[in-house]
Amino acid sequence: MDATRPQKLDLLVRGGTVLTAAPNRPVIEDAVIGVRDGRLAVLAPAGEVGALEATRVVEASGFVITPGFVNVHTHANLCMVRGVAEDMGFAPAYTPGVPHGHDVTPDEARALARLGALEAMLFGSTLINDSYVHADVALPAMEELGMRVYACGRIHDVDFSSVHRQVWEHRREIGERTLRDAAELASRWHGAMNGRIGVQLAAHAPDTCSRELLADVYDARRELGLRVNIHLAQSRIEVERVRERDGLTPAELLESVGLLDDRLLGTHCLYLTESDIARVGRARMTVCHIPKGNATGGTAAPTSRLRRAGAALALGTDNMHADMIEVLRWALAVGRLQEGGVTDFWQPHHVFDMATMEGARAMGLDEDLGSLVLGKKADFVGFDFRRAHLTPNVNPLGNLVHVAHGRDVGFVAVDGRLVVEDGRPTLVDEEEIRREGAQAARQLWARAQG
């Protein structure tokens, strides 16, 4: 073999416009992306690259290519209540008349998790951070799609069968079981599949976790070396319940047990006091911002004040839909509403960073993910801009944030493997997943209404 001859690439993508999410070179026109062993081996304008050989070549002229989106907070199973729970008020676990987590069988969890994960992947999320029930079944089922999946069963010690009736009964055996299940899940899956699979400790919320359980989660975090995610200040009910039970705000409670720091992902953060905002900012906690879901419920997180206080912001889709492009748009709009206009404080690059690099940092994966840089893992998404609503393409990032949709995704690569081509999954049967997910939802709704 000629030692001077360039090594053959596994995948070559050429002709697209790349939005790298890297500050030193944010845009590359007429780009060449070369993948070898799951990582970016070539990334440059075509004029700077010589002849290359590759096992597979993708022509991407007319496409805008971004890093894969990091969806830091979702519940794939809750696609089962889409189109209904949005108009009933608060989160499904607290809402009477809809299926709840304790109603879901393992087979139903598998079917619904695959459906929710498939939606996210088709819309450009290459990593989802999921929590719900039967994670031991749902996690490997979602992994089969080829995407990155972090998952955990929800950790709590409240009896969830009564919460939708606003009855909180904390039982130590429930907390011990859910925390033990999470530790066992991590032991089996964290770091598996060449790092595509992982676990965070998903403490449900300060009102559904007693102070004692939260202290146990802190100990488990230290022992296992994992991050923690939690719904934080997501409702007035939560704030009132924690104040009544512990004499603290939810943020104060988390601080008191040691959890409030830069390894915590707090979702929603709607009902924070001014001192809470300062507290969260000092801790450099990541706020998992759910702008569309919250606005649908008539609420918004104080993201401008949180950013100014020092908190990190990343984006998630939460319940009932998984289009991160919609989330980008809503995050920008919510920020500008708080500012009272268009300013330099909220521009498309801010929300794009929240969906890419800030998401990767929140997950502790920014050395490998979140931007398209030589040597990083080859996770990227191609958006087909050869469409009327994306023409003209004067500013690719502006078009992406303001007018694109998840449905514009043409291809998705994870570890350099194409898991979506021509808008369709390559490793699983989309129709089968849709059929099984719809059937599981029908069964759950029949039981809930019966």
Automatic annotation (TrEMBL):
GO MF annotations in UniProt: hydrolase activity, acting on carbon-nitrogen (but not peptide) bonds
SUPFAM superfamilies tied to this protein: Composite domain of metallo-dependent hydrolases, Metallo-dependent hydrolases
Domain of life of the organism encoding this protein: Bacteria
UniProt lineage: Bacteria, Pseudomonadati, Pseudomonadota, Alphaproteobacteria, Hyphomicrobiales
Protein name per its UniProtKB record: Amidohydrolase-related domain-containing protein
InterPro entries, per database record: Amidohydro-rel, Metal-dep_hydrolase_composite, Metal_Hydrolase, MTA/SAH_deaminase
Source species of the chain: Lutibaculum baratangense AMV1
Occurrences of domain Amidohydrolase-related (ranges): 64-419
Keywords, sorted A to Z: Hydrolase
Record family assignment: Belongs to the metallo-dependent hydrolases superfamily. ATZ/TRZ family.
